[in-house]
Amino acid sequence: MLIEREAESCYLGQFIPLQYHHNMLMDANRMDNFKAAIQRQVFEGAKVLELGGGTGVLSWFAAQAASKVYCVEFNPDMVAEARRLLAMNQYGDRVEVIHADAFEYLPPEPVDFVICEMIHVAMLREKQVEVIENFKRRYAEKFPGQMPVFIPEAVVMAVQPLQQRYDFSGYQAPIIQFQLPGAFTSDTIELAQPALYKIIDFTQPNDLLIEWDGQFTIETAGQLSALRFVTKNILAIVMENNSTIDWLNHYMALPLATPLSVAAGDVVQVSFQYRAGGSIESLQNSMRVSVKASAKLRSKHLSLAIG
User: Fold this and answer.
1) 87 within domain boundaries
2) What is the pLDDT of residues 255-286, one digit of tens each?
3) Is residue 144 part of a domain?
4) Are residues 61 and 36 in contact, defined by beta-carbon separation less than 8 angstroms?
5) What is the pTM of this model?
6) At what angle do helices 76-86 and 18-25 cross, to 10 degrees?
7) In a domain, 306, yes or no
8) pLDDT band at 25 (very low <50, low <70, confident <90, very high)
9) How many CB atoms lie within 10 A of CB 249?
10) Which domain holds residue 56?
């Protein structure tokens, strides 16, 4: 069982290169928002557990106030790197880097917070949901009573129809694209507003199967050639002013096997299903898109009825 999970983890990106983790340190949006959320949540003297610690930076944010941080990492190269980097930083000695599987590890004492950032767009590839659900069950058995606060606290996911251009210097290539949030280009046209398809609240039990069957009313005529997946992580809830500290993943645009011509007012039916932590291809292969109601036909029927 462990060997099978290790093989799957390698395939789905759990053992990504050190350089990828180094690049994450240079992602100011990710770093600043996690730092703000962790420093807001973790109180003086708290006990903290991080599952999937990477370079150890999120554990280090917690260590500014926490008296003890257990940082669990399965990749031996990352364990060595986290220990090296933490030794260079003040309060790094409050973090114990543990070489263990997050699916199996439990801390030796109750903790106040659990940080887990195994996050990919649409909650694919990485095992965030499965790891946390597995942890909650095992933790409750060992430490009956109050559950720790999770960082992130929740994940909000939406989907949006696009007209996506796939012309690369004349070479037609409908490929998966990761796009910067808020960056608009002529290659991407939004055909309708995004629709919410899933909220994952880590204080509640969560099913690993994610599925949606819904409709869009097209606002801009064009070729519906892709679905964009949007993932917003709620890192902390700020009760005082009813706001949140968020981290928005890169958008992920998945090309359709067969583009559809759509007109403004058309109603488009979209469905898909996948397992949290599964491959991108599993979602892409399940996508079904069709024109449910044509604005042109509706207009014709209305004219005939009036006539």
Assistant:
1) yes
2) 999 999 999 999 999 999 999 999 999 999 99
3) no
4) no
5) 0.90
6) 40
7) no
8) confident
9) 21
10) 2-117
